[in-house]
Structures are given as C-alpha cells and as structure tokens.
Amino acid sequence: MANDMHIAAPEPRSVVTEPAASTFPNNGRLMLITPSRLAYRGLFGSPGERRFGAWTFYVALQSPFEVSIDGAPMERQTFALVPPYTAHRVRTSDLEMAVVLVEAEAVDGEAMRQNLIGGAAERELCAASIRNGFARPMSRGEDFDLRFFGQRLPSRTLDTRVQRAIDRMCSQPAGRLSAEDCATLTGLSFSRFTHLFSEQTGTTFRRFRAWKRARGLMRMVGHNLNLLDVALSAGYADSTHFSHSIRQFYGLTPRDIFAFSRQLSVISQQA
C-alpha cells in the first residue's frame, strides 16, 4: 500500500528564481514549525532509514534524488510523498533539499492526496508551490497551507476522546503521559482506549507518543545547547535512548541534526 502512495512528479517546466540573499538569512536555509506542520529547506546529508509520523513531501531543489519506500528499489525522482510511519530512504547529490511534514492526525490524507496530486498536472503544481513557498519572503503570521500548497488542506475530525488525549500529549511532548492516564482522562477502559486510539490514528499509542517526543526536538534546533540537556528536556531518560529514538525516526543522530541546523533560520508558530 505504501508503494501505491509514492507519488513522483516530472521536472518542473520553469526554474524558480531564488530571492536575494538579504531576503532570507543564511543562504535561504530555514525551518518553519507549527503544531501540525513543518517545512525545512537546508542541508540534507545522508540519512539512514526514516519513519516520520507525518505525511512527508520531498522536493528536489536542483538535481533529482533517489528514494526507496517500504523496501522498494531506489527510484530517481524530483518529488515524492511518503505516508506516515512508513520506512523510507532518500539520497541526493545536492547539499540541500526541501521537506514538508504534515502531521497524520491533522489532515484527511486521502482527500489531501486527491486534491494535491490527483494527476500529473496537480503533482507538478504541488512541487512548484512548495518550492515557491521557500522562495518568497516569510512572515510569522502567514498561513502555512496557503504558502506551501496554495490551498488549505482538508482537516480530519477525530473522536473527541482521542483528540483530547492527543491535545494533552502534544501540549507536553516531553511528559510521561501514559495510555493508562489517557484512558482515565477520557473515561474509557485501557483496552477500549488503546483500540480506539489505534483505529483513529493508524498507529499505536506508544509509537505515536514516541514520534511526538522526537518531533519536539525540532523546537530546540538552532540553539547552542548541550545534547545531554536536550535529551533530558525532551523527555528521554538518557543519551543512549535519546540517540536511538531520534535516529529511528529521522535516520540521523541528534548530533547530526544539530550540526545541520547551524546557520538555519527557525520560525516557530504556536497556532
């Protein structure tokens, strides 16, 4: 199923003209992060296998890249969409790439795919829109979806009890909220809550919580912080657990992520 969701787009017909260096500091390298979206343009490196808990758009800025999804052979592409929690690998000869993440629980994934990449023309337009989103001057209050997709993505409505647990978890990603705590919070038995949670989110409570904790790391990049302090602040018991969990999701060590974030402009929107 994951391979069916792998969407490739042809090379764009026109080349986006990058803004003057003064428009974006640090050679255009930046990250915009919101509670349910993340856009990154910057150094890419050579990540190992990744498993983001979000719909992930990869867009080439110059040369095509190679991508393997769910163990499939590498394919050469300029644009790809990877479903949430799907193992994949990406290799590029370029220094930089554009990556946009949309949290799985925040969007109707199938409707989004149909709206954005239902056909070849739509796929090309989506890739160009993401490139343009990084090329234009950015303000903190601008609507994320309109900037990078040219339209608001179709939202998803979850069971209110599951949404309540997710809201609590996302408000404190470094916390120790357990499935038992959430069952009590929602007034459900443990077994009923975990079943409903998996049914609604498409993954287990434990994996979902691990992803939210790992995603919380992104709000710390761009700062000159000690990695052990980062690990403890992010809710990890020790540096070994921290490194293993981050690498499992990002395909990079925390040290690599912080190294790539040097000279990166970070804009954070709380809502």
What is the topology?
Elements: E1 30-33, E2 37-43, E3 54-59, E4 65-69, E5 75-77, E6 79-82, E7 88-91, E8 96-103, H1 109-117, H2 120-135, H3 144-149, H4 160-171, H5 179-186, H6 190-201, H7 205-215, H8 227-233, H9 239-250, H10 254-260, E9 265-268
Parallel strand pairs: 1-9
Antiparallel strand pairs: 1-2, 2-8, 3-6, 3-8, 4-5, 4-7
Summarize the structure.
By secondary structure, the protein is an alpha+beta fold. 37% of the residues lie in helices and 17% in strands.
Would you write up a description of this structure?
- The longest helix is centred in the middle third of the chain and has 16 residues, at 120-135.
- β4 and β5 form a beta hairpin.
- This protein has 271 residues and is α+β, with helices and mostly antiparallel strands.
- It has helices at 109-117, 120-135, 144-149, 160-171, 179-186, 190-201, 205-215, 227-233, 239-250, 254-260; strands at residues 30-33, 37-43, 54-59, 65-69, 75-77, 79-82, 88-91, 96-103, 265-268.
What brief labels describe this structure?
single chain, 271 residues, alpha+beta, three-stranded antiparallel β-sheet, 37% helix
